[in-house]
Design goal:
This protein is mainly beta and about 800 residues long. It contains ten helices and 42 strands. The chain has a 24-stranded antiparallel sheet that branches. Strands 3-9-10-7-8 form a five-stranded mixed sheet. A hairpin with a 6-residue loop joins strand 36 and strand 37. The two termini are about 55 Å apart.
Length: about 800
């Protein structure tokens, strides 16, 4: 009932405007302003976003350029019910409160990432894909029929710009208070039937904090990327596109900072850095081992062959698409696990290599009637998808010079043991652990070397039958087979090289060297049924959709013994959605509304396991969860005010556990909300545009203000009250000057105009420090100047 109350107001407004427009005189066309049609490929074929029977929002390259959107984490500012965060190791995407967790385990994401037709299992590929884009499509809700497994929450589909028939390009230079960026793209014909495009990115967000432990500036990124595309018209009916993308990243990412510590922890840390503080917003931080990520290389490559076969046999149109591609990525990282200036626990080595190869073959066509029977017409797409991926990790967790002092102090307090004194066998719930009274544990710990081979095969069919002109019936079905094998050696480490002497390994749960070899074998079917009806000549479209999807089972790469949970069951979802889309008042007004209800079984969630002092993040299955809500977006370009454009979107999302008897903190989580799921989120953009006679041919000056809102939510799965992130209303503004020729633009942008102090992450320390809270501040007020030149 709550969802109906939320949706009823925009629905009534849309109905009233729909009927009102039948009597309204033309307005936008008189002024020459109409809302441009946005083309997407959400159904594996290009069509208007208004024709998609589902909740889809798209940002075109022109929209992103005007909005000064230069980092992928900013997408969520303009698309409610979508959150993107980057912790330096791997970005995390959440849609409708369900987030990706591939970085923790040997599995996939709940939100699929597709870049130029390549389905990517690691969100790290965002670093290589987010530049020179034609559009970004956010598909909310399960997308299993066409995009396969591991799209239970949705899909982010990135499409890069294609080579052009005429010589063109642009260069964009950005200078901010803490960052600088440059983009370049050149496109045009090489011969009569070959076109090429080259895009280049250099990005360096500068230092944002000072490490008081050693005086270093931290928080920078050096990111460079390039993309080459070649389009060859082999004949009038065959086009071959080749693409190659490469990227390198050096990321001194911002470690989480203490937001609260108890007195004993403060006294302990003060001995290592007297300047230590818990002021989250003073641009200072303190740690002894600087967290850093290097993407040594990240490459994606592929070929796409499109063939038009005309109208053979009974087909009105027939075409085929063949896609071959792959990726190769190597990531090297290290980090400070204890968040402090004391040398207690660190990750000196975290290496991940991923290699993937993919094949997809599709047949698109149109037949009269229902597959040549009866009246109407049938559009169909059917195909096969095959993917092979190899993932290798080298992950080490070790102690340091101050580990013993910590174990005798705050570490013991965190475990409920004595705060002082020596330790012997049986302490910290570890019968085999022996803690020495003094000395160093540098190099003592555990080495994890998991490797995973995945082979996925999918066969799919998707058809749209139109028995009469305004009615469409969509039927979809996909069969997936997922085969996954893991080899996960766990090796105890000791400075002397004799692993049996390791002190920390038993605390982590690795009491002996072991090789774990779990396997996954799955076969799943993902169906879809949708009804769509057009009103007023297609200006208004209503739809109803039911579909199922699944996310493949996953391994726990941090399973350190035979009794650990080595793998989790597949995540499954059943979803219902109804919606209405409209373009009204001579295309000067668009409004879209969707209402959804999705039930997840065996939802993949983060949990903290292992010893209470040295816990590890692992995957687990929640019994059942539900997300239900409504999403509304609109744009208005009034003819009576040709200088004004209004656009906005709002989402209501009630995401909670229906059954979860043993939640992340060991209690019953039934009825509690999901992390990364604000109840309300939204954005409202007001743009004013006026002539500027001082420019040649009377250019224009525009001023835009974005107001973004998010209600309170958690980023930590424990949902502790002290870890909540408060609601936030943040304003951003842009002032742009553009000549009538649109050959260049100059933009002054200010983000977080009122300098609001908010968090991007807030969590506990997993038992490392008793009662402590750590987090990361969201960006404060920042100004930047952008210049773009187009030709």
């Amino acid at each position: 009932m709550q969802i109906l109350r939320v949706a009823i107001v925009p629905a009534l407004v849309m109905c009233q405007l729909t009927f009102a427009q039948q009597q309204a005189p033309a307005s936008a066309e008189v002024q020459g302003r109409v809302i441009e049609e946005v083309i997407v490929s959400a159904n594996k074929t290009e069509q208007s976003v208004q024709d998609i029977a589902g909740s889809v929002q798209a940002l075109t390259g022109d929209m992103m350029q005007k909005a000064n959107l230069t980092d992928f984490t900013e997408i969520s500012k303009y698309i409610p019910n979508t959150q993107l965060t980057d912790d330096g190791l791997e970005p995390t995407i959440a849609v409708r409160g369900v987030r990706s967790v591939a970085a923790i385990g040997g599995g996939d994401n709940s939100v699929g990432l597709v870049i130029d037709d390549l389905a990517l299992s690691r969100q790290t590929y965002f670093h290589a894909g987010f530049f020179d884009l034609e559009r970004i499509e956010v598909l909310r809700g399960p997308q299993g029929t066409l995009f396969g497994k591991s799209t239970t929450a949705g899909v982010l589909n990135l499409v890069s710009n294609a080579p052009t028939d005429e010589f063109s390009g642009y260069i964009t230079l950005r200078k901010g208070e803490h960052d600088e960026q440059a983009q370049l793209a050149v496109s045009g014909p090489l011969t009569d039937n070959i076109r090429a495009r080259i895009g280049v990115l250099y990005d360096r967000p500068g230092s944002q904090q000072t490490n008081t432990f050693n005086g270093d500036d931290v928080g920078f990124i050096d990111r460079s990327a390039a993309r080459v595309k070649l389009a060859w018209d082999i004949s009038d009916t065959n086009e071959l596109t080749l693409f190659w993308t490469t990227a390198e990243v050096d990321h001194m990412y911002l470690n989480q900072k203490f937001d609260f510590v108890n007195d004993q922890t403060r006294d302990f840390i003060d001995d290592y850095d007297p300047q230590f503080d818990t002021d989250m917003f003073n641009d200072k931080i303190s740690f002894d081992f600087e967290p850093q990520t290097w993407i040594d290389h990240m490459q994606s490559f592929g070929a796409r062959l499109e063939s038009d076969w005309g109208s053979p046999l009974a087909f009105d149109a027939l075409s085929t698409t063949l896609i071959l591609g792959g990726t190769d990525m190597a990531v090297n990282a290290h980090g400070d696990v204890d968040y402090s200036p004391a040398d207690i626990i660190r990750i000196p080595v975290a290496i991940e290599t991923v290699r993937m190869s993919q094949l997809e073959a599709r047949v698109n066509g149109t037949l009269p009637g229902f597959f040549a029977l009866g009246r109407g017409s049938t559009e169909f797409i059917t195909g096969i998808f095959a993917q092979k991926e190899q993932v290798h990790y080298d992950y080490r967790i070790v102690g340091g010079d101050d580990t013993i002092a910590w174990l005798l102090g705050p570490g013991a307090q965190a475990a409920g043991g004595p705060a002082t004194g020596g330790f012997g066998p049986g302490i910290l719930n570890c019968p085999t652990c022996v803690i020495p009274a003094s000395g160093s544990l540098a190099g003592d710990g555990v080495k994890i070397l998991p490797a995973m081979d995945t082979k996925a095969l999918g066969v799919f069919a998707h058809m749209v039958y139109r028995p009469i002109e305004p009615l469409s019936i969509t039927l979809g079905l996909r069969w997936d087979r997922n085969k996954r094998d893991a080899n996960m050696p766990v090796i105890k480490l000791h400075p002397s090289g004799e692993g049996d002497l390791s002190v920390l390994a038993p605390l982590l749960g690795a009491e002996e060297d072991v090789v774990l070899t779990p396997k996954i074998r799955e076969r799943k079917v993902s169906p879809k049924i949708s009804l769509q009806y057009e009103l007023f000549g297609g200006d208004v479209v209503t739809y109803m959709t039911w579909q199922e999807g699944y996310k493949g089972g996953a391994f726990n790469f941090f399973a350190l013994n035979e009794s650990s949970t080595q793998q989790v069951e597949p995540e499954q979802v059943e979803s219902y959605e109804v919606g209405i889309k409209s373009v009204l008042m001579d295309r000067s007004l668009s409004m879209n509304l969707s209402v959804y209800d999705s039930e997840f079984t065996d939802l993949h969630v983060y949990v903290t396991t292992g010893d209470s002092v040295l816990p590890l993040q692992q995957l687990a299955n929640a019994a059942k969860a539900r997300t239900q809500g409504a999403e509304f977006d609109a744009m208005f370009m009034p003819g009576f005010a040709p200088w004004l454009t209004l656009s906005g979107a709002v989402a209501y999302n009630d995401a909670y556990y229906e059954e979860y008897p043993n939640g992340p903190d060991g209690t019953d989580f039934a009825g509690k909300t999901l992390a990364a799921a604000p109840l309300w989120s939204g954005v409202l953009t007001t743009e004013l545009r006026f002539p500027l006679p001082l420019l040649e041919d009377s250019g224009a000056i525009s001023w835009a203000v974005d107001a973004t809102y998010s209600s309170e939510y958690w980023t930590d799965a424990d949902l502790a009250p002290e870890l909540i992130i408060d609601e936030a209303l943040i304003y951003h503004t842009r002032l742009s000057v553009t000549p009538a020729s649109e050959a260049w633009s100059l933009t002054l942008a200010i983000n977080n105009v009122t300098d609001e102090k908010t968090y991007s992450i807030r969590s506990d320390t997993g038992g490392v420090w008793p009662d402590a809270i750590v987090g990361r501040a969201a960006p404060r007020r920042q100004a930047s100047l952008d210049f773009s030149w187009f030709w």
